[in-house]
């Protein structure tokens, strides 16, 4: 009897002795058996790597490209509520049936002699690429996982490669040397194909890799830019085509996401041969919603930020609360994340906290977070056994002008996204 999607996902957990193993040899062999390396997965491909900002950059590329009439497929990870979120085909999640067919194709190729062991992420990446290949796509946009050079997504040669930001995260796999992290992320660049740098202060190692490959570099602040128009609450994008021609888009609405990422997305699209027209781009940015990224549900702001760099952005962009109201922080984090750095970055905006425990092998207890917050001068009002238990405690204490930032992990935000949140 054929496996259901849930059964396939359970099966993937058993395929490899460790959850994460960077490297391209095993996944490339299976991809070759599946025929994924013999032809492009779409007419044009954009890959997006970086420490933060990958998901929002990809979402903007997807939304703007579809607004221009292109057929777009995307691959992202992780998901919030359903695995199907990882593969989007022309704006809709892949169906269970499509993913099951993809996993069946992966398994058949994996077991062909000699059999190959794959991690959960590697099998999922191959399934996603197979699903994208089944569609007549104008553009595929691929989010690179925690690495770059050795990440499974990097078996695909992208027409345009993006590095958004570089900061410390996943230190157990990528280390703490920022220059080396930059080199790993820049491993998605390809010879003589455009490299888009989505930050003004990336380590020099990123541009060095591009130069070594003779990859044309387009960096925020040098080759493309965004400027605000305070009078209209809109912004202007200025960039360049691959031929060096200047382009400008005016009167763009605030997408509610980092402007650096929005400007980077537009530059990458242009280099992929898509020249965005003004009105469709304005419409796409106006209607854009990225789950778990500064996503508001009444008094609650949900954000999956889980490292100091992301937390610092949140601290700068949280709107102020009314006089006399409280800005709460509900936080749950995994044990391998820099909790002290995240708490310190948020402490300028949040002094009142609810800590929640996360289950699993990498879970962290709420009491440990509480100790760290107290050591940094914050006030912990409650420790809860789960994210929803923290919500239930806050539900009886929220004032009508209070606000809550729920953050620290995809797992924290996923739990709160699963049902309506209480409002005072």
UniProtKB/TrEMBL annotation:
Annotated GO CC locations: cytoplasm
Domain (Mur ligase central): residue spans on this chain: 48-197
Residues passing through the membrane, by range: none
Domain of life: Bacteria
Keywords: ATP-binding, Folate biosynthesis, Ligase, Magnesium, Metal-binding, Nucleotide-binding
Mur ligase C-terminal domain location: 292-410
GO molecular function per UniProt: ATP binding; dihydrofolate synthase activity; metal ion binding; tetrahydrofolylpolyglutamate synthase activity
One of the protein's GO biological processes: folic acid biosynthetic process
First-level EC class: ligase
Function: Functions in two distinct reactions of the de novo folate biosynthetic pathway. Catalyzes the addition of a glutamate residue to dihydropteroate (7,8-dihydropteroate or H2Pte) to form dihydrofolate (7,8-dihydrofolate monoglutamate or H2Pte-Glu). Also catalyzes successive additions of L-glutamate to tetrahydrofolate or 10-formyltetrahydrofolate or 5,10-methylenetetrahydrofolate, leading to folylpolyglutamate derivatives.
Family label: Belongs to the folylpolyglutamate synthase family.
Protein name: Dihydrofolate synthase/folylpolyglutamate synthase
Organism: Vreelandella subterranea
């Amino acid at each position: 009897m054929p496996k259901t999607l849930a059964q396939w996902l359970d099966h993937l957990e058993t395929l490899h002795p460790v959850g994460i193993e960077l490297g391209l040899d095993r996944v490339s062999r299976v991809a070759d058996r599946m025929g994924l390396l013999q032809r492009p997965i779409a007419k044009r491909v954009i890959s997006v790597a970086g420490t933060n900002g990958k998901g929002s950059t990809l979402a903007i590329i997807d939304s703007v490209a579809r607004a221009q009439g292109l057929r777009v497929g995307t691959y992202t990870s992780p998901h919030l509520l359903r695995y199907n979120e990882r593969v989007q085909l022309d704006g809709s999640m892949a169906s269970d049936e499509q993913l099951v067919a993809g996993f069946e194709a992966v398994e058949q190729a994996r077991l062909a002699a000699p059999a190959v062991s794959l991690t959960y992420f590697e099998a999922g990446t191959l399934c996603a690429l197979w699903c994208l290949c089944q569609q007549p796509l104008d553009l595929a946009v691929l989010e690179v996982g925690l690495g770059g050079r050795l990440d499974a997504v990097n078996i695909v040669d992208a027409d345009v490669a993006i590095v958004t930001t570089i900061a410390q995260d996943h230190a157990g796999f990528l280390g703490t040397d920022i220059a080396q992290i930059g080199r790993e992320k820049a491993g998605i660049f390809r010879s003589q194909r455009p490299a888009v740098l989505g930050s003004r202060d990336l380590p020099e190692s990123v541009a060095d890799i591009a130069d070594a490959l003779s990859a044309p570099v387009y960096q925020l602040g040098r080759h493309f830019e965004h400027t605000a128009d305070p009078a209209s609450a809109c912004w202007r994008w200025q960039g360049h085509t691959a031929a060096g021609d200047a382009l400008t888009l005016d009167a763009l609405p605030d997408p509610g996401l980092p402007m650096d990422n929005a400007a980077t997305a537009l530059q990458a699209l242009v280099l992929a041969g898509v020249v965005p027209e003004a009105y469709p781009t304005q419409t796409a940015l106006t209607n854009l919603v990225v789950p778990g990224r500064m996503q508001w549900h009444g008094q609650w702001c949900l954000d999956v930020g889980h490292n100091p760099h992301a937390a610092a952005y949140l601290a700068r962009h949280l709107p102020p609360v009314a006089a006399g109201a409280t800005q709460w922080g509900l936080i749950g984090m995994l044990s391998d994340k820099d909790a002290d750095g995240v708490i310190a970055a948020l402490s300028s905006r949040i002094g009142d906290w609810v800590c929640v425990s996360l289950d699993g092998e990498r879970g962290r207890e709420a009491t440990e977070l509480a100790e760290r917050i107290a050591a940094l001068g914050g006030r912990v009002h409650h420790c809860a056994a789960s994210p929803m238990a923290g919500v239930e405690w806050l539900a009886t204490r929220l004032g009508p002008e209070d606000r809550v930032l729920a953050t620290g992990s995809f797992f924290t935000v996923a739990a709160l996204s699963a049902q309506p949140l209480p409002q005072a």
